[in-house]
Specification:
The chain is α+β, with helices and mostly antiparallel strands and 100 residues long. Helices cover 17% and strands 18% of the residues. It has a domain of 64 residues.
C-alpha cells in the first residue's frame, strides 16, 4: 500500500506502453487485455493512451483480475459479464474462464 493512495504520482505498477498496445491490436489482433494490476496504463498517466488504442479497435480492458496464473495462456474461452451502469464507461465484471 501507499501512505498517499489518492496521489497519482505515487501509483507504480506494471503497465503496457502505447507501442505494445498498438502492436497487440494491429498485429496480434487481440480482442482485449486482462491484467492483475490497477490499470493497463501507467499509474501516472493522465491521457490513458493504451485505453484509447484499445477503444479505437473496439477492444476491452479487464483490470484488477484475480487468479490469472491459474488459466492456460492459450485455448481458454473467456466470458465477461459486466454490470449495466447507465452512462458508465466501465463496470464491475464477473469473469468466467472455460478451459477445455
Amino acid at each position: 500500500g501507499s501512505p498517499t493512495p489518492s496521489d497519482s504520482n505515487t501509483l507504480h505498477f506494471p503497465s503496457f506502453s502505447s507501442v505494445s498496445a498498438d502492436f497487440l491490436v494491429s498485429h496480434r489482433k487481440i480482442a482485449g487485455i486482462g491484467v492483475d494490476t490497477a490499470s493497463i496504463d501507467s499509474g501516472q498517466s493522465h491521457d490513458f493512451p493504451v485505453h484509447q488504442i484499445l477503444g479505437e479497435h473496439n477492444g476491452f480492458a479487464l483490470e484488477n483480475v484475480a487468479n490469472l496464473d491459474q488459466i492456460p495462456s492459450v485455448g481458454t474461452w473467456l466470458i465477461a459479464l459486466p454490470m449495466k451502469i447507465k452512462g458508465g464507461t466501465g463496470a464491475p465484471v464477473r469473469i468466467l474462464g472455460l478451459i477445455p
